């Protein structure tokens, strides 16, 4: 019995498992930062869609319609790669001489000096921005609908008190719309959390990638077969993790909705 306990303690606290535990921070960071950006892009997109100027309305509508129609996996791969190559192209215009370009055998980058080496932090930020852009389009529709749900009489009363359009927008309209937007934004948040499982597509050693590596059959020449295919056990851990995130998220959004509803009449809620 003591030998079994010692084995599991050694196995679950080895270097690879400690790295797996540390990789949970990548998922949490991507979800929080991507979710924050999604709300920011959603507010910008909804404001544009509500603009009295048709060019701005066209930009907001185009953003929410086109981005929502693109598969998130495709955009998740496209944006970081396009951004990386755009930066390398700009660097090439600054540092690459015609001779260096002529000596470059690879198709990209134009010269070795323009090669931008990205590590996990850079890819993680790009992944979070990708999540923000994609799900910001969904948040745009949610916030736009919530802004339209705010009673017009309250906006007219604010203007009658002498508030400017900007004051009406930020102090009354957006303040009131959170009551209607938060239920929809909670769904967007859960989509973002689920999409964090795609981080490994950007060379980020996240919880899904490590679960696949650790659960694969492990054979060491010195001791033989350590364990057979245990991937289902590691995936079960991830399943429990995402369930816990869901439960915590529901509690958090419940508290936010109660907070947003303070001081607002029941008819408006």
Features:
single chain; 269 residues; two-stranded antiparallel ribbon; 2 strands; flat; mainly alpha
Quaternary structure annotation:
single chain
Low-confidence stretches: none
Residue share in β-strands? under 5%
Strand order of the largest sheet: 1-2
Number of DSSP E strands: 2
- What is the alpha-carbon Rg in Å? 24 Å
Q: What share of the residues lie within helices?
A: over 70%
Tell me the major beta sheet. Answer: 2 strands, antiparallel
Average pLDDT figure: 84
Label the overall shape. flat
User: N- to C-terminal separation?
Assistant: 59 Å
Could you spell the SSE succession in H and E letters?
HHHHHHHHHHEEH
| Total DSSP helices | 11
Structural class: mainly alpha
List the helices and strands and how they pair.
Elements: H1 2-12, H2 15-22, H3 24-49, H4 54-69, H5 72-95, H6 98-103, H7 120-149, H8 152-160, H9 165-195, H10 207-215, E1 218-220, E2 224-227, H11 231-260
Helix pairs in contact: 2-10, 3-4, 3-7, 3-9, 4-7, 5-7, 7-9, 8-9, 9-11, 10-11
């Amino acid at each position: 019995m003591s030998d079994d306990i010692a084995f599991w303690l050694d196995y679950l606290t080895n270097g690879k498992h400690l790295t797996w535990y540390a990789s949970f921070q990548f998922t949490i960071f991507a979800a929080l930062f991507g979710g924050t950006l999604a709300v920011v892009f959603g507010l910008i997109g909804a404001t544009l869609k509500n603009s009295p100027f048709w060019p701005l309305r066209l930009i907001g509508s185009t953003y929410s319609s086109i981005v929502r129609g693109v598969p998130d996996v495709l955009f998740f791969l496209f944006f970081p790669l396009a951004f990386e190559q755009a930066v390398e192209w700009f660097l090439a215009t600054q540092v690459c001489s015609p001779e260096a370009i002529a000596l470059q055998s690879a198709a990209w980058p134009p010269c070795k000096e323009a090669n931008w080496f990205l590590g996990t932090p850079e890819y993680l930020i790009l992944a979070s921005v990708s999540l923000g852009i994609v799900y910001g389009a969904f948040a745009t529709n949610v916030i736009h609908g919530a802004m339209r749900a705010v009673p017009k009489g309250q906006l007219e009363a604010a203007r009658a008190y002498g508030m400017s359009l900007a004051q009406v927008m930020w102090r009354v309209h957006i303040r009131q719309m959170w009551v209607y937007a938060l239920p929809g934004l909670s769904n967007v948040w859960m989509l973002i959390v689920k999409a964090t499982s795609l981080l490994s597509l950007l060379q980020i050693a996240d919880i899904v990638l490590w679960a696949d590596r650790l659960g694969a059959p492990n054979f060491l020449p010195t001791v033989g077969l350590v364990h057979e295919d245990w991937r289902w056990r590691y995936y079960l851990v991830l399943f429990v993790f995402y369930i816990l995130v869901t439960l915590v998220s529901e509690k958090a959004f419940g508290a936010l909705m109660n907070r947003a509803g303070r001081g607002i009449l029941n008819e408006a809620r």
